[in-house]
Design a protein that fits this description.
Blueprint (H helix, E strand, L loop, with lengths): L10 H9 L12 H10 L7 H9 L7 H11 L4 H4 L4 H14 L2 H10 L3 H20 L18
Helix pairs in contact: 1-3, 2-3
């Protein structure tokens, strides 16, 4: 399983994390050509497969923010995911999107909807406590977003 990018991670590490989140049912990890063609097909701009390869392998010395912005939009993340020192907030958003895509979020919400008000509040408090414990230990949990739903990150 690919580890989620953290503070000080490189653009290449962050891009490879996104590339590897595509589930096997949708073709597995994105290829450089698929990304380049997808960017153009979505009308986001034009980036060559070679540029994607250079970003993915860390060979792009100092990529333009515009290039990173186009790649970010293709993957549905903020440009800050690539430019901020700590992408934790963006990784949390990615986890939310993956859970929504894989139906896990809807499933959890449906189950919580059947709880009494007091039990609903208990679950909400537990989520808060677990989130705080993760933050204290420097984990956001998004590195395991693929467990059990075919979103291979290896």
């Amino acid at each position: 399983m690919m580890e989620q990018p953290g503070r000080g991670s490189t653009i290449a590490e962050r891009l490879n994390y996104l590339i590897n989140l595509r589930p096997e049912s949708e073709g597995g990890p994105w290829s450089d050509l698929e990304i380049a063609e997808g960017i153009e097909a979505q009308g986001l701009g034009k980036i060559s497969a070679q540029t994607v390869w250079r970003l993915r392998t860390g060979r792009a010395d100092d990529p333009k923010v515009g290039t990173l912005s186009i790649v970010a939009r293709f993957f549905g993340v903020n440009t800050g995911y690539f430019t901020d020192d700590d992408p934790s907030e963006s990784v949390a958003e990615i986890r939310y999107l993956l859970a929504h895509r894989d139906g896990e979020l809807l499933d959890a919400m449906m189950r919580m909807g059947g709880l009494s008000n007091s039990n609903f509040q208990t679950v909400n408090n537990m989520i808060g406590a677990l989130s705080e414990a993760e933050r204290k230990h420097g984990r956001t949990g998004a590195g395991d977003a693929s467990e059990g739903k075919g979103t291979s990150t290896e």
